[in-house]
Amino acid sequence: MIMSPPRKKLNTNNCNIVIDGDSIVRVNNIKFLGVVIDENMTWKYHTDFVCNKMSKSVGILLRARQMLYGHTLHMLYNSLIKPHLVYCITVWGNSYKKYLSKIQLVQKRAIRVITFSEFLAHTTPLFIDRDIMPVYQLHAYFTGIMIFQSLHNELPNYLCNLFCRNFNERNSTNLRSIYMSKKFTQFSIRSVGPRIWNSFTLKCKQATSLYSFKKLLRSHLILSHSNEWTLFRLNWHYIDVPHWYFYITCSHI
User: How many angstroms separate the CA atoms of 153 and 157, rounded?
Assistant: First the structure.
């Protein structure tokens, strides 16, 4: 596998690697320690792999809910689906939105199954009621934990030097953003991490222990999700139709 940015075309026609007389076959992706790495580092193949695993687990939940109820189904969700979501999410969780949206759709289907909701039921109140974080919030949650451990020297040395605090005294708890000129590197945790950390509340960033930080961060993410849902319901959409004008509340959509 020859790794390169997605838009950079490499001439690999004459690239033949032979070891002990055996020719090495070139592949465009490979599974390493449970993570599928592709040659362009887009995480497309890994997100497809996660979607496939989650879809099979949703089928198990569909059969199980004929005999089980809410709390037990929630436990099955945590054992069958959540591990696929959180495994190495700090690495692949900042991929292109078109790839992550597939995972989000499967996760929404799972939350509808364990809550016995309709097929087209809105999932935001279901996530809030079950205290389950969507895939985007899971990425922010585990990225925040990694940054907290890095800033408090709880990780290996090569990970403790990834992030730098802001020199501005007013924003001393924030991290200094690092500009990446290439799209290939803009998805790295070194580039995305400071933006995620700076979006947290001051109380979260000033936590003194990992336990308190996890507790505060989880509450912050769930509260922000709840506030977004409240604003969504209170918002009014204006639809312009020839000769007719309608005001439709989001609660009816």
Answer: 8
Predicted TM-score (pTM) of this structure: 0.78
Q: Judge contact between 163 and 150, C-beta under 8 A.
A: yes
* Amino acid (one-letter) located at 42: T
* 203-228: b (≥16 Cβ within 10 Å) or e: ebbebeeeeebbebbbebbbeebeee
Residue 247 phi, psi (nearest 5): -110, 120
Quick check: helix, strand or coil at residue 198?
Answer: helix
Backbone φ and ψ for 74, nearest 5 degrees, come out as -65, -40
What is the number of alpha carbons within 13 Å of residue 180 lying toward its C-beta? 14
What pLDDT, in 10s, does the model give residues 123-146?
888 888 888 888 888 999 999 999
Question: What mean pLDDT value characterizes the chain?
Answer: 79
Distance CA 189, CA 153 (A): 17
- Report angle CA 136, 231, 247 to the nearest 5 degrees: 120
